[in-house]
Amino acid sequence: MENSDDLVLLDSPGSPFGMRARLALAAKGLKFRTELEDLTQSKSSLLLKVNPVHKKIPVLIHNGKPICESLIIVEYIDEAWKDGCRPLLPSDPYERANAKFWADFIDKKVSPASDKLWEIEGEQQAAKKEFIEGIKMLEGELNSKPYFGGESLSFLDIAFLPCYYWFHAFENFGKFSIEAECPKLVAWGKRCMEEEFVHTSLPHPHKIYDLAVEYKNKMGI
């Protein structure tokens, strides 16, 4: 899709939250520029200017106006570009609310456990248990559907796909097999990776592992 809007994404290559914004922009076929933040260094003046509250990526700057927080960015992109674009959120109010509920679940239950898997030494066992419990609940929500929203990749898939791309890193740091625990979820992830806009927007899972190792080394963790 050709867009005359000025779109800038403040991002970092391995950030799962930045990946959400990238996926949503790509799903809509939107062109954008990327300003990369080095998460091991001091925050840039641009980031502090456009997100003075949380001082975190991602931030989408649309014609000079910043939108912060990854799920809010995905929803904004869906609402701002409707005509001629694939919808991301369901039109049905109940299905829409359900998708938002599970996206919130990912941020509040799954992501904190996954962070402990690779960032905090000595907490892997407890984090592994909490993480597996969370993704098993998501697998139950997926059930036998090809995608979380049904027949096509949409909002909740975009919310969780970055976590799937981190599975390889989690398995290496936590010494366990996610496929052995959640085979349907892994099959879903592989199906999503077949979408051109997905695999062209995100780094390979092995690259994400390398980025995680590099980050840990730089931060001394």
List keywords for this structure.
221 residues, alpha+beta, four-stranded mixed beta sheet, 11 helices, globular
How would you characterize the overall build of this protein?
This protein is α+β, with helices and mostly antiparallel strands and 221 residues long. 58% of the residues lie in helices and 8% in strands. It has helices at 16-27, 45-50, 70-80, 93-119, 124-142, 155-165, 167-174, 178-181, 183-193, 196-199, 205-219, and strands at 7-11, 33-36, 59-62, 65-68. Strands 2-1-3-4 form a 4-stranded mixed beta sheet, covered by helices on one side. Strand 3 (59-62) and strand 4 (65-68) form a beta hairpin. Helix 1 (16-27) packs parallel to helix 3 (70-80) and helix 7 (167-174) packs across helix 11 (205-219). The protein is globular and about 50 Å long. The N and C termini lie far apart (43 Å).
Compact description:
This protein is α+β, with helices and mostly antiparallel strands. The protein has helices at residues 16-27, 45-50, 70-80, 93-119, 124-142, 155-165, 167-174, 178-181, 183-193, 196-199, 205-219, and strands at 7-11, 33-36, 59-62, 65-68. It has a four-stranded mixed sheet, covered by helices on one side.
Write the layout of secondary structure elements.
Elements: E1 7-11, H1 16-27, E2 33-36, H2 45-50, E3 59-62, E4 65-68, H3 70-80, H4 93-119, H5 124-142, H6 155-165, H7 167-174, H8 178-181, H9 183-193, H10 196-199, H11 205-219
Parallel strand pairs: 1-2
Antiparallel strand pairs: 1-3, 3-4
